Amino acid sequence: MDRPDGRQADQLRPISFLPNVAPNAAGSVLVSFGNTRVICAATIQEDVPRWMKSQGVQGGWLTAEYSMLPYSTLDRKARDISRGKLDGRSSEIQRLIGRSLRAVTDLKKLGQRTIWIDCDVLQADGGTRTASITGGCVALAIALNGLIGRGGLKEFPLTQLVAAVSAGVWEGSPVLDLNYPEDRDAEVDFNVVMTEDGNFVELQGSGEENVFSADDMNTMLDLSRGGIKELVEKQRAAILTADHPRTNELTSLGNAFKHS
User: Fold this and answer.
1) Could you tell me if residue 119 is inside a domain?
2) 252: confidence class by pLDDT, cuts 50, 70, 90
């Protein structure tokens, strides 16, 4: 089996994180999974949604928005505003991003504030949702470190890192981190969201007009575990080396975890 870009079955695309690409955000990163590139930015709002106030829910909230810029695909993608509504795919993906990040965030430690994670796809070559989750976690951690550095938080709300990767069956073989040609022609397509301690947050998988065996599924999950482990290492390195633009008192993620 020869993959389109020559990778091995268990090999991620080149992964990179460029922190602080959005100066006005509390935390931001440009994440690249090969030719898929997404800007993930965290914004902190000193308030909570109305439903939390009316129901007396303690703590804060975290939510996400996702969009593909018109020039992110080969054919121009119309903006949601031009259609008058958010398309179903974008809605489903931003809900997934929010669920994934809330799974590793102690919302009570946030206080009465909301964190928005905005994920904007600059270039799409497969795996935009997995890149958004992985980069969104980095942006969130940078924002929380900055908040602690400014004295806005006493305890670090992020319990651990979370990352996501795709896997699938392409030309009869399970492979990791599908690019667009593989995703387009895959017989089976999986998206796996996992925490750094190896627990699952969410699995999304289906046969594309095909079926798959338990052995295929187990192989894809094993491939995903290896990919997630590598992604978490890269996430941690990006967070620890990020210089927050608004404070010189940034607490490292490692030290912040000690206070959680």
Assistant:
1) yes
2) very low
